[in-house]
Design brief:
The chain is built from three helices and twelve strands; from the N terminus they run αβββββαββββββαβ. By secondary structure, it is mainly beta.
């Protein structure tokens, strides 16, 4: 499985390198592209829906982010008009503060409702896409979470069991002024696994895109593939999200539908048990406000 992920990443990188030379002239001629000496901004925000993007914050910029994940909308998965199609429920809420230490290094702290996770994370830009210089961008993301949930509700008996870790390599490219795409190889480790058929370590492969169809509005989507594990108490489903991203002044507002069971990578990658097929999709939104400190 590791060889499979590495092969896909290698094919992705080599294909971009092969086409970068041929399309660079067309990119320069398009007025919406930056000067050849400047870096290209691939995504507007630091997240698409569930997936991290390659982007980091500018130096000394604070991003206050609120993410809300409602309940299932489909009647088959407990939704319907009795709970106002999931709007009466709140599956997860994440409140986060992201800060740009430098233009290429962002740190973050957050708190999530589901499992009462406290999170600390960091993202580093390794390569930035630039016309005639680099055909793609690569960033590294890592986080650590600690659950403060009560022992009786989560069967956690040791402090060390409360920790989870996630790492990702984000490989992204802006193909045109309107279209951006990325792939995201992921690794998640959980110190405690409550299902005897599952493993503490999990590999996943994600991908996502942004397509701008008006000056301030874009279609966004992302998807994560996780290997199938037989015998799980609750079958694992692959998280899929789609939505609309709207720019309004200093705000970046996103409205999405996703079957993810949580907001954090450490949660939605191993623990998504709802499926789109059976009405397990949920309304979600992100509000982001930037402050220059």
């Amino acid at each position: 499985m590791i060889k499979f992920f590495l092969s896909l990443a290698l094919i992705f990188i080599l294909s971009f390198c092969a086409f970068a030379q041929s399309d660079s002239k067309n990119q320069i001629q398009n007025r919406e592209w930056p000067d050849t000496a400047k870096k290209i901004r691939i995504f507007k925000g630091t997240r698409i829906i569930n997936a991290e993007t390659n982007e980091t914050l500018k130096k000394h910029t604070l991003d206050f982010r609120v993410t809300h994940l409602f309940g299932n909308m489909g009647k088959e998965s407990g939704g319907g008009y009795h709970n106002f199609y999931g709007l009466d429920q709140s599956k997860d809420i994440r409140i986060a503060f992201d800060y740009g230490i430098t233009d290429w290094w962002t740190i973050s702290v957050s708190r999530s409702k589901r499992h009462e996770n406290l999170e600390a994370s960091g993202k580093f830009k390794i390569i930035e896409q630039a016309i005639d210089k680099a055909p793609l961008a690569i960033s590294f993301f890592a986080n650590i979470t600690y659950s403060t949930i009560t022992k009786s509700s989560f069967q956690i008996y040791k402090p060390s069991y409360r920790y989870t870790y996630a790492t990702q390599i984000v490989i992204a490219r802006k193909f045109s002024p309107r279209f951006s795409f990325e792939i995201v190889p992921c690794y998640v480790h959980r110190n405690l696994d409550l299902d005897s058929s599952d493993k503490n370590d999990l590999l996943a492969l994600g991908g996502g895109f942004r397509w701008r169809f008006t000056k301030h509005t874009s279609l966004i989507a992302d998807y994560f593939f996780t290997p199938k594990v037989n015998g799980l108490t609750y079958p694992r489903h692959n998280p899929l999200g789609t939505g609309v991203e709207i720019e309004s002044g200093g705000h970046l507002f996103s409205v999405m539908l996703t079957n993810a069971s949580g907001i954090l990578e450490n949660d939605y990658i191993p623990n998504t048990t709802d499926s789109w097929k059976h009405g397990g999709y949920k309304l979600s939104f992100i509000i982001s406000r930037l402050f220059k400190l």
